[in-house]
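Case study 2.
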Amino acid sequence: ESAFRACSQLTAINLPDSVTTIGDYAFYECYRLASVTLGNGLTSIGDQAFMYCSALKSIVIPNSVTNIGASAFNCCSSLDSVAIGNGLRKISDCTFYKCSALAYFTMPDSIESIGKHAFFTCKSLKNINVPRTVTTIGDYVFYNCSSLTSITIPDSVTSIGNQAFQSCYGLTEITIP
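Prediction:
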């Protein structure tokens, strides 16, 4: 926990395959952290692990990751591209909360649920593919995603939370089975 918290001069990390876990708050408030390379042995990213890493531009989550904690990338305001491997089953609460630059997001077919506030105020997100494996979309998931223009909800979804699409002013088309 908090291993490199608030290391204000840290700009890049390259984790070897031997690292299996990033603890809670590990890189919290590393404002200059711009480049992160995660090893293929990584299985878990802790709660708020990269929260407030405002210089982080992109992240590739390897297939080996099965858990990403709540608010892991919360307020990463420069994060514009995220690719998640096929090991993840759930996008936790507030994972990408206020990632206002997030425009490109690849959601794997392994995802079964999207936690509340997961993409809250991701104002640059234009489209998102909700895979057929998702059964639950939590409260406020896409709240204030003002650039989101269309979305298709697959027939696998049995629950959409409160205000999931509130303030999505650009939303012109939604397909619900």
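The radius of gyration is 15 Å.
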